[in-house]
Amino acid sequence: MNYRGREIEWRELPGGGLILVRVPNEREQRCIDRYKRGDTSATIAASEGVSRQRIQQLLARYGITRLDGGQRHRWPLRLAAAMDKRAARHERCMAKWGISLAEHKAITAKYGKTHESRSPFCKFIQQRKNARQRNIEWRITFREWWTIWQDSGRWEQRGRGQGYCMARKLDQGPYAPENVYICTIGENFSDSYLVDHPRRKASARLLATSDPIRWAA
User: What's the pLDDT at 33?
Assistant: First the structure.
C-alpha cells in the first residue's frame, strides 16, 4: 500500500488488533541491516552521507534499539578476540618463564618490569648469561630459580659484598635445582678452595708466572 509516496502495511499487534506501519525503503533497510550486523550509527552515517542523529532517528522510527545491534552485537566478538589474545600471552609466558601470566603480573607489580635491574627476571637472565659465558651448564627454569630464592627468604639481601647469591654445591656441576643453594658471597668463594677447582689452578699459575717484585710493589 502506498501513502504519500511511502510504502505502508497493516501489522498485527501482540495483544490483538492491527496497526498501520511504514515500510522502510531500500536505503533505510540497508541502514537497519548494517546496524543489526554490528555497525555503529556513526559508521553508517559516515558512509551514507548523513548525520549520526539522522540514523538514530531512522532506527527509532522502526523500533530498532541498541539492544538489537550496534556495539551490543560486536562485544561478544571483541570479548572472544580479547580472550584469544590473553591465551596467546599466557602461552608465551609459560614457554619463556615457566609461570602463568597472572604470576608474571604479580612479580612485576612488586619488583618492577622485566627489563628493570631490580626485577627477578632481569637477575635470572644475568645469572644464566654469566653461567653460559663460563661454560657452566644451565638446567634450571625461572620458576625453580625463583622458588629457591623465595624459600630462602634472602632475596632482599641478594647482592655483592656481604650479600647472598645462588651458588653450586662445592662450586661444581651444573646449575640445577638439586645442585644449588643460597649462601653468602664469602661462602661461595670458600667452596672453590675445598676442591681442586680450575679457578684455584688459574690463580696458582698466575702467581707462578708473575714478577714477584711487581706484586710486592
Answer: 87
191: its cell numbers:
667452596
Residues of the chain with pLDDT under 50: 204, 207, 212-217
Under a CB-based contact definition with an 8 Å cutoff, are residues 154 and 133 in contact? Answer: no
Distance, in Å, from the CA atom of 156 to the CA atom of 49, rounded to the nearest integer, reads 64
Is the alpha carbon torsion for 156, 158, 164, 168 positive or negative? positive
Are the beta carbons of 18 and 11 closer than 8 angstroms? yes
User: What is the sign, positive or negative, of the torsion defined by CA atoms of 67, 71, 77, 78?
Assistant: negative
Q: Which fold has domain 2-69?
A: Arc Repressor Mutant, subunit A (1.10.10)
Residue 180: Cβ within 10 Å count: 20
Report if pTM > 0.90: no
pLDDT tens, position by position, 51-95 = 989 888 888 888 888 777 776 777 777 788 889 999 999 999 999
Domain regions of the chain by residue span? 2-69, 134-216
Neighbours of 90 (CB within 10 A): 15
